[in-house]
Amino acid sequence: MRFRFYLRRFFLPALCLFAGLQGRTQPYPQQYFRAPLDIPLNLSGNFGELRTNHFHAGLDIKTEQREGLPVYAAAEGYVSRIKVSPVGYGYALYIDHPAGYTTVYGHLLCYQGAIAAYTRSQQYAHESFSVDLFPAPGELPVNKGDLVGLSGNSGGSGGPHLHFEIRDTKSENPMNPLLFGLEVKDNLPPSISGIWVVPLSDSSLVQGAGGIRAYNTYEATGKCALEKRDPIVVYGDIGFAIHTADKLDGNANRCGVYRVELHVDSLLVFAQTLDQLDFATSRAINAHTIYEKFKKERTSIHRSYRLVNNPLNIYDNLLNDGMVSFRDGKRHKVSYSVMDIRGNTSTLEFVVESAKSFSGSAPNREIPQALFHYEKDNVLDLGDIRVFIDAFSLYEDLDFNIYRKTPGMAGAITPTYMVASPYVPVHAHYQLAIKMPGLAASDSAKALIVRWDPEKDRLFPETTTYEDGWLLAEPQYFGYFSVMIDKTAPTISSIDFSAAMKNHRSFSFRVRDNLSDVSEIIPRIDGQWALMEYDAKSDRITYYFDAERISHGKHQFELTVRDGRGNEKTFSAPFEW
Prior knowledge:
This protein is mainly beta.
């Protein structure tokens, strides 16, 4: 990978210092919101924690490993949005408040009262479990402390908890809820597990070599120190990164830190603060962390320098985007300060020794098939495969290659194409086309591009179309791609359905697809659409008997499931309730 620099290099010593925390002086009302639960707030995740493709936008509040706890409106307002989905936040509720904030409650088990009735009526009106509803202002008013739902484990939740957010209503930007006075016990400083020292050009060295070097800490909290006490020898343009996380009292979860500061010779050259986020740029977490390390190990490493096309607005006091040039032959003191939102702080100091001249071996680099510039549209056409990437979809310039690997994935009808690398991030969808000139007409509607994830060892289908002999998709990852044919219908298996359902509250099925994923579920009782709750993580759909819609007696149940390539399976059977 090549790196290009567009800002003036920062040479030590430097004389300028940017103002700190510009634009972060907004007051946060301390008594406006109540806690959404009546139990003490014990967190399994906090605001700004590093997650896959995003920063965590709220608090994950533990619910004592159970579902069904009462969830209350945090302040007066009205329900502005109700979103029900088998993934994501599951049963989610949005409440707008007159002070200009919106609170969000995710992974609910169910809604309560008028909210539940409104949602159910709309699901039947749309004949869909998944709905995204926007009630008129005032249609569903709430008072502070009103019961609005029960805590659950719906959507993409990994266990029972309540996801809670506070957003700025106008911008929709999530804000750190702990800035508003919610009480969470935290007397522990963040931990610092180590640092990474990163050469940022082909003529930069760390310990005489061109690769990234990691250094672990000996003391991980409070006043920390590296295991290696000798100076780290560097030359050229260097970036630093820190492996850090926060802990809360009585809690084993590793949470996100609030603020990080990097000083070189007592000069603040980089800082980040996680008090607000922007959903439009949150995917740039992949430019903020060391992407390959995070993807492989979910390690919470924060870069203390900014890639040239990183759009995040969480940084301040940047000197040359945090990149430092070492060429003076002197020793320099580098220090980190890491704080949580309660002010608990850990520090780390270490010494780097700058060489005066390049003395090492530059990395051997193959000539790339193309050099993609982040600020331009880019295309690479190899005849049988074509990639087009819009300008500003990359975080930096990139040596770009596509390799064909044969034999390909099991069941594939093309070679496996490695597009760039699965360990290179991309910010936006790009266009991928694979030529299939000999594809039979009967197969064109069943063919799809799939991506293999090496960490999960799993295939992910891409939404695919067929045009003029090409299969087209718009992935949001680089990595391994191939073409497969999906002519296999989904499977439907009963969990507890039977012909005799008297005295039962519900029945469930498990629905699965082998490749292109379940895309449509159509349940009917006596020919009429019936509401079944769908939990994608367990592949489970459940019908709860509704005496207002069906009577006791004999009925006919029918369930049709379609996948992303139009393959269809239908189950039909009588039952008596």
